[in-house]
Structure formats: C-alpha cells, structure tokens
Design goal:
Largest sheet: 7 strands, antiparallel
InterPro entries: FKBP20-2-like, PPIase_dom_sf, PPIase_FKBP_dom
Organism: Arabidopsis thaliana x Arabidopsis arenosa
Radius of gyration: 34 Å
Shape: elongated
Pfam family, one: FKBP_C
Catalytic activity: [protein]-peptidylproline (omega=180) = [protein]-peptidylproline (omega=0)
Helix content: 10-25%
Structural class: alpha+beta
Strand content: 25-35%
Protein name: peptidylprolyl isomerase
Mean pLDDT: 74
Amino acid sequence: MVTILSTPPLSPRLTFLCETKLSLSRSNRSVCCSLSEDPKDQCLSRRSLVYVLVASPCLLLPALSSSAKTKSKSPYDERRLLEQNKRIQRENNAPDEFPNFVREGFEVKVLASDNYIKADSGLIYRDFNVGQGDFPKDGQQVTFHYIGYNESGRRIDSTYIQGSPARIRMGTNALVPGFEMGIRDMKPGGRRRIIIPPELGPPVGPSTFFSSKQFEVFDVELLSIQNCERRTIIGFYSDVTCS
C-alpha cells in the first residue's frame, strides 16, 4: 500500500507574499517580501533574496492540498488478465487443467481447480496417480521423469525429450527446494503436478532456464527409489552406489 502524504496549507496570515516593484529606472528593480498580509517596504536585492530563500526555513511556500485514492482492482481487469493468460496458454499448448496465473505487477493470483492442494509451505500440488510403495528418504536415489512449464504454459524442459530420466539423491540439496518438497511424499509409479512459488523456486539468471521470479509448474512421474551405500576402493577412494 502506498501512502501519499501532503503538507497542510499555511495560515493566510503566514502566507509568504512577494511583489516585484519596477521603478522608472531598470537599475532600481527590487523584490519586496513579507510574512504578513500587509507587506511593508522590506525590499531585498536579487542576490539577498536568493540567499534568504535558501537559508531560511521560514520562507517555504505552502504545499497544495491534494487527495488521492488507492488503486482498486476492478473485476473487469482481473477477468481481462485471466482471459489473456488462458489465450497465451492455448497458444503454448499447455496441458489440460493447467493452473491459471493472474499477474498484476508483483502480485500473482493462482487459479486452479479444487483437485489441487496447498501445503503450509506455499507449495501447490495435484496427484493424478498416487503410486505404490514407500516414500523416498534422505540418502536414497530417486529416478523420475518431469516436464517443466512457466506461468504461460510454455514448456521449458523435459526429460522425455532428452530421452532419459533424471536421477538424484534425496537430501543433498541438488534439487530446487520446492521440487524436492513435491516428490518427498510421492510413491513409485505416482504422477503429480507441482506448482512451485518463487520463494521455493530455482535461482534466476542467464545460466538457468528462469529469467525472472515467477511460479514454475512441473509434471513429475516417479519411476523408482533405490537404496545407496558408500564403498571404499583401495583405501583412499570412495564412491556411492545405488541399486
């Protein structure tokens, strides 16, 4: 919220009055100023007047009174932005039941069906298939496919197109925070759509797919979970194997 402050007008009796007196001779031009309604013959040369205006805090001109209304959101504007987002998603061939994002400045409203669940962390997700088995634990390796989208439904990455699934060990900070939160309670065979808010999202910059702080959407298919162990080779070299 922006608060507009304005200085109240001065009392009429304290209004700073100036008038320019022109004599018949140009060399006698002077400026007369007073702090009363009936100014005396208190004439200052131009150089003196400039010094007084800069040095004296009492000669401030009154601020004009002003009033402003905070910008209120119109339902029409929200509908317009929603329809614009839907149109862009159709052009980008976004998948079915893709969430809509109404963005106005830094404020974003996520519009999704009741099938989506919002966690306390701010993460939003929907299960298309729950899967079977146990949840992955720290230290275990998860193998999964994913497709990443931005707010407009444009695909930004896909392991399906790459031709091989991703593999990562849980609890090693190798994933986007919101992504790891989203698959931590998935089971093998499960399929889930994860909506990651900016505060849980990836870093931004030229070295990433993400150029600005926005919501990211991932469709994830968890394929398997493997246990991992560290092994030592020839006494000084070790690695981690998962099976």
